[in-house]
Amino acid sequence: QVQLVESGGGLVQAGGSLRLSCAASERTFSSYSMGWFRQAPEKEREFVAEISRSGGILYADSVKDRFTISRDNAKNTMSLQMNSLKPEDTAIYYCAADWLTVRGRHVDYWGQGTQVTVSS
Questions:
Q1: Phi/psi at 87 (nearest 5 deg)?
Q2: Residue 1: pLDDT band by 50, 70, 90 thresholds?
Q3: Largest CA distance in the chain
Q4: What value does the mean pLDDT take over residues 89-96?
């Protein structure tokens, strides 16, 4: 059983930055592919970024060149550095973990979410 807890959300003006963190209470954290999803009001949950257990990275086109995903296996944490934020980035951001990939039809574990609000 893996428990994921997000932190770092908040309110920021357009063009600003935020850094989200995800802490995993699990000794086998390094065995999982980790990623971030987000869900805006009245919209479907969408993929943001993934970092595999070997360090491979994939970004959604909407955040490429603005967001940076990273992980620290020694500390059981994953981060999402978000720069040049836009109002359309406003959403609840969720941490996810899966044995294979978080982009599949089923995700093994989800965090509770953290709110990111970008004002104009």
A1: -55, -35
A2: confident
A3: 41
A4: 98
